[in-house]
Fold this sequence. Notes:
By secondary structure, the chain is mainly alpha-helical. The protein is 93% helix and 0% strand. It contains 1 helix and no strands. The termini are far apart. The model has no long low-confidence stretch (mean pLDDT 95).
Amino acid sequence: MFVSMLVHVIKGHVNNISFILAILYRG
């Protein structure tokens, strides 16, 4: 339960970082 929640949070952070990097790269 805790591990799956942790994985979900990590995936969310990875998605946010990729999104921010994509914006910075395009900008």
